[in-house]
């Protein structure tokens, strides 16, 4: 009798869980390095050796995930000390936002669950939320997202950007500081087969970044690309495409152009994201099977073949 009651309760629990749509996601969220950063930052007030303080309390205590971040980006203690001393108002305004990241598990679960719905092959990556010396918003390694949290959540309507260098302030002011948008974008990158082995071609880089922006927009149900980039692109699409395609025809690498990381430009930076987004959008519209289209966008390996199938270029033919 006792066993029967236990069985009935177990069934009721499973049914209720299914109805609620809950699912335990198998991934880690690492935030220890944010806590370590604040310990080092607070210790600067009484420290006689700022660099040693950051090295001991922050760098040397890095989690394995953050060590990967440090390895990929080459950050060191002196950069953190300089950032901390030059941006006290910024750090004061952003501190409660960073400290709240550890409470975002349910919201990130929802992002992952929505990804599974449109891409069943999804493998959930771990996430390391850390602090960069104001150098990067996000990058990926195999099975891992590395988020520069101070960049990711720097909503210009909430955070004090007055001390930030002008070129970086311009970038941050053009973004919304939406953490989930960045998580969704980087999450897509972790599923792309090219990953860190992406070739240097401009077209390939644009499609890879555009795919992450396009798929994350579908997942979130709203535009995840910087609206400054997207709105400028929508207003100048034809002229941007002609300029971009001239560079593609000359077989330029993405580092040899101003389509990415051009933070001193008079127009919004990173317009290559917009062009890649529009190519992926066109590819999606051309396919009757939308779920298959999403799979093919994420798993793209040949940029030239993908571009031809998208028929995006024909949009501007006379």
Write the layout of secondary structure elements.
Layout: H1 2-20, E1 29-30, H2 32-43, H3 50-59, H4 64-73, H5 77-86, H6 88-99, H7 105-118, E2 126-130, E3 138-141, E4 144-148, H8 149-152, H9 166-173, H10 179-189, H11 202-220, H12 227-235, H13 237-249, H14 271-286, H15 290-298, H16 303-310
Parallel strand pairs: 1-2, 2-4
Antiparallel strand pairs: 3-4
Helix pairs in contact: 2-3, 3-5, 7-10, 10-11, 11-14, 14-15, 14-16
Walk me through what this model shows.
The chain has 318 residues and is mainly α. The chain contains 16 helices and 4 strands. A 4-stranded mixed β-sheet has the order 1-2-4-3, sandwiched between helices. Strand 3 (138-141) and strand 4 form a beta hairpin. Helix 7 crosses helix 10 (179-189). The radius of gyration is 22 Å and the shape is globular.
